[in-house]
Write a structure and sequence with these properties.
- The complex is a heterodimer of chains A (573) and B (253).
- Chain A has 573 residues and is of the alpha/beta class.
- Among the domains of chain A are: 236-347, Flavocytochrome C3, Chain A, domain 1 (Alpha-Beta Complex); 434-530, Methane Monooxygenase Hydroxylase, Chain G, domain 1 (Up-down Bundle), CATH 1.20.58.
- In chain A, 33% of the residues lie in helices and 18% in strands.
- Chain A has helices at residues 15-27, 64-74, 81-100, 134-147, 215-222, 256-259, 285-297, 316-322, 324-332, 388-408, 418-428, 439-453, 460-478, 491-515, and strands at 2-11, 33-37, 54-55, 116-117, 127-128, 152-155, 157-164, 171-178, 183-194, 227-228, 233-240, 263-265, 307-310, 341-351, 354-356, 368-370, 375-376, 538-545, 548-555.
- In chain A, helix 1 links the parallel strand 1 (2-11) and strand 2 (33-37).
- In chain A, helix 1 (15-27) runs parallel beside helix 10 and helix 3 packs across helix 10.
- Helices cover 33% and strands 13% of the residues of chain B.
- In chain B, helix 3 (118-126) packs parallel to helix 7 (183-193) and helix 7 (183-193) runs antiparallel to helix 8 (201-207).
- The radius of gyration of chain B is 21 Å and the shape is elongated.
- The chains are: A alpha/beta (573), B alpha+beta (253).
- At the A-B interface, helix 3 and helix 4 of A face helix 1, helix 3, helix 4 and helix 7 of B.
Chain lengths: 573, 253
């Protein structure tokens, strides 16, 4: 097996990975920095897919305190307050960096000042954006900055295992699989950043980039790290649904459509949101998703099983101008967003949960740092639209600074546990030596059981059912091999590994959802529908001990702000 | 309505090959292979490729990520022309029931439909196509940039490139000249030249003024014709030619 050494190894090239690379390089350009990514640099993951924008308190009258309170209230008070505070303050620094040093184009007001738009769940218009395709601008500008620097790229190299030293108290390196050659590569590093992104792609309808499969969280669990809030999976109300065997199904059309006055209609072409919430279509993501799901379960569906969104009662010119990207996307798929009905379903969007980490991005494992959607605690029980790209870029930058400082204090590389490394190679090669089976069928079954029983509305019975089902599917996967086992650029092998990660993380979602006997934010139990009182806020923490998942109940430290005695648990508009 | 009541099948020809031996070997030996694929509603070229890999040949190699026109990694040669496959519906490119899919040209092949995009990214860097901050500006503020200023409007029409390399594959000059930077990188430089915040727009112009840069463009317009974002790199390159000519004149006087 080929081996290589680098000072800093960054796994992932979204907002977190690229900012980490740029910051570490800025701090010490003599460092050997390597970005390893499952796809192509700057092309993978979800920062690129951000439509809405970037929440940051800039305007007169707004404040970081206010942004902080919105974030904590949106998170139903279970956030780690130090992390949320770091987010809202870091966002101010990072947006200036994106504008002044990275060179992003953000939309302006007529007087030349930066434009900030309204976004759900916030008490101030604070979302900086570039039309309705903000992520492409941010990540394209970041990628070209990385290309211009002396930063190594390992593209189409997927991380498969974190390898520790013999005593198990320090990370030694990461086992990578070179997708192109099908060969393993062991990279020893003084510091490693876990920034692969989460991505709840194990649900029938999902929004994230198709190459995401929760690999980072699965690797962290295997390495013994604690993860928190894993039951908190955010569903976005408006995913496109185009029918069987279409990749575009599940991808988002923008939240702003509802904000701008769009209507949701059921299969009978009748509005229904007012029956669920006085704010109707403008209610928060979780309420709208549950209402749509309720209509779908009652059978009031359109031809592909979803409901409709329509803008046809609004000014066509406004729709075309304000939602250009979405109008074009729908048109390419054969749908008319301006004057027709577009079929939509709620769709799994974002994982609030992830690896437990500190404000400087350290984790429990020495040598391992984490940032972005792989981490938990920043958003609590629900993430505000516009806080996702803030999370990845703020903490990615911090991780780069921390790692550069930390590496300077290290005397050398840790020696890898060769037994652990060999076992990881063995495990990753598992499907190569088995008779081929129907991976597609396994994926579809996983996505259906997760959607039906671990999705928008959960109860004890359903969670027990899905727990058994996922365990059985994982056993099936272990008995399923792949095609000819050609190894190089072998999509079937990658699919198998994706499923392995997705099933591992599905089990975490289910275990945490079983432990959470109340409803909070994105987690809704029909058998425990009382919403969590802010003052009683608690969160789940989970780790793998002797092969089984142990979930514990942790109390929240209200060290910055405390909920008022009369603080309601109602969603803010 | 039953979504898949349509029993029609599409005859799909895909070019299969192993990797290019080197960067000079852009067309390694290979062969066409044919499958029948069921027609679906709203079906894209990417859906067809996915269906074949999932149901007929697990060894078929291809690349995609976002599946919705944002990442720019799924472009292929479809019916002889470079296109993004995730948002190219079958109905818009198939007349009859035959569909041909091959890897993007002008890039080395990794396997089957997956090409190595590294030369495309490397030329972006070679063109100096990245923002250079002005260190004299207060980094804690944001410069006012009027959205209707001429410079900003000029930059705005060219900025939404997703880097999919469709233009790079469409360009005959790229095919003829190995060192030509290509439409996407030059288009990006044009946005930098028009960026009021840029520290050194002239340096950007100089970097692409030569034979490997804007001078080599023959204005065939293939890039503009095929850009899935409806950008016009030819016009951007014409702008670069004009401005670098003026810069050269100014330098002489």
């Amino acid at each position: 097996m080929e081996r290589r050494r680098t000072d800093i190894l960054i796994l992932g090239s979204g907002g977190a990975g690229l900012f980490a690379a740029i910051h570490a390089h800025r701090k010490n350009s003599d460092l050997d920095i390597t970005v390893a990514v499952k796809g192509l640099l700057g092309k993978s993951g979800c920062t690129r897919m951000v439509q809405g924008g970037y929440n940051v308190a800039l305007a007169l009258g707004d404040s970081v305190e206010r942004h902080f309170r919105d974030t904590v209230e949106g998170g139903k008070w279970i956030n780690n307050q130090d992390l949320a505070w770091t987010l809202v303050n870091g966002a101010v620094e990072r947006i200036h960096e994106l504008e002044n040093e990275i060179g992003c184009f953000f939309d302006r007001n007529p007087d030349g000042s930066i434009h900030q738009k309204a976004f759900a769940g916030q008490t101030f218009d604070r979302t900086v954006h570039k039309g309705d395709l903000t992520g492409i601008e941010i990540i394209s500008r970041l990628a070209e900055q990385v290309w211009a620097r002396n930063i190594n790229r390992l593209e189409e190299h997927r991380a498969v295992a974190l390898i520790k030293n013999k005593t198990g108290d320090r990370l030694a390196g990461v086992l990578l699989l070179d997708i192109r050659s099908g060969k393993f590569l062991f990279v020893e590093a003084k510091a490693v950043l876990l920034a692969t992104g989460g991505g709840p792609t194990m649900y029938r309808y999902h929004t994230p980039s198709g190459d995401k499969s929760c690999d980072g969280m699965a690797m962290a669990l295997a390495a013994g790290l604690p993860l928190r809030d894993m039951e908190m999976v955010q569903f976005h109300p408006t995913g496109l649904v185009a029918g069987e065997d279409t990749r575009i199904t599940g991808t988002i059309i923008e939240e702003g459509l509802r904000g701008a006055g769009g209507y949701l209609l059921n299969g009978d072409e009748e509005r229904f949101m007012a029956d669920y919430d006085p704010r109707a279509e403008r209610a928060t993501r979780d309420i709208v998703s549950r209402a749509m799901y309720d209509q779908m379960r009652a059978g009031r569906t359109a031809k592909n099983g979803g409901v409709y969104i329509t803008m046809k009662h609004l000014d066509a010119k406004m729709v075309k101008k304000q939602f250009k990207g979405m109008v074009e996307r729908c048109a390419d798929c054969g749908f008319d967003l301006v004057s027709g009905l577009v079929e939509v379903v709620p769709t799994a969007h974002y994982m609030m949960g992830g690896v437990v980490f500190q404000t400087d991005c350290r984790t429990e494992l020495t040598g391992l740092f984490a940032a972005g959607e792989d981490t938990g605690g920043v958003h609590g029980a629900n993430r505000l639209g516009g806080n996702g790209v803030g999370n990845s870029t703020v903490f990615g930058g911090i991780a780069g600074d921390t790692m550069a400082g930390w590496v300077a204090e290290q005397s050398g590389f840790a020696e890898a546990d060769e037994g652990e490394l060999a076992a990881a190679v063995e495990r990753t090669s598992h499907p190569l030596n088995r008779a081929p089976g129907d991976l597609n069928d396994l994926r579809e079954r996983l996505s259906n059981v997760m959607w039906d029983d671990a999705g928008i509305i959960r109860d004890a019975q359903g969670l027990e059912r899905v727990s058994k089902a996922v365990n059985a599917l994982h056993d099936d996967l272990m008995n399923t091999g792949i095609g000819s086992g050609q190894r190089h650029y072998d999509i079937a092998w990658q699919d198998w590994l994706n499923l392995d990660s997705q099933m591992t993380v599905s089990k975490m979602i289910i275990a945490a959802a079983q432990a959470r006997d109340d409803s909070a934010g994105a987690h809704f139990r029909s058998d425990f529908s009382d919403t969590l009182a802010p003052r009683q806020a608690w969160y789940t923490e989970l780790r793998q001990i002797n092969g089984s998942l142990q979930v514990s109940r942790q109390s929240v430290d209200f060290n910055r702000i405390k909920p008022n005695v009369d603080e309601g648990s109602e969603d803010k508009p | 309505m039953d979504n898949n009541s349509d029993q029609r099948e599409l005859t799909v020809h895909i070019w299969r090959s192993e990797a290019s031996a080197s960067d000079d070997d852009l067309q390694p030996d290979g062969a066409w292979q044919t499958w029948e694929v069921p027609v679906r509603n709203s079906q894209t070229v990417l859906d067809v490729v996915t269906w074949i890999q999932r149901h007929r040949d697990p060894d078929l190699s291809y690349r995609y990520a976002c599946r919705v026109g944002m990442c720019g990694t799924c472009a292929m040669t479809v019916q002889g022309k470079p296109r993004w496959t995730c948002r190219t519906r079958i109905g818009t490119v198939v007349d009859g029931n035959e569909l041909t899919i091959a890897p993007l040209r002008n890039l080395p092949i990794i396997k089957d439909l997956a090409t190595d995009m590294a030369p495309f990214f490397d030329k972006w860097a070679e063109a100096g196509a990245q923002f250079v901050p002005d260190r004299n500006v207060d980094q804690q503020t944001m410069a006012p940039v009027k959205p209707d200023s001429r410079a900003r409007r000029t930059a705005d029409v060219a900025i939404e490139c997703i880097g999919c390399a469709v233009c790079y594959a469409a360009c005959d000059t790229v095919a003829w000249r190995a060192d030509y930077l290509g439409p996407a990188a030059l288009n990006r430089v044009w946005t930098l030249v028009n960026d009021e915040r840029e520290a050194s727009p002239k340096e950007h112009l100089k970097a692409v003024a030569g034979e490997s840069g804007c001078l080599s463009c023959h204005s065939h317009q293939s890039c503009a014709e095929l850009c899935p974002k409806h950008l016009n790199p030819t016009a951007s390159i014409a702008g670069l030619k004009r401005k670098s000519f003026l810069l050269a004149l100014a330098g002489r006087s």
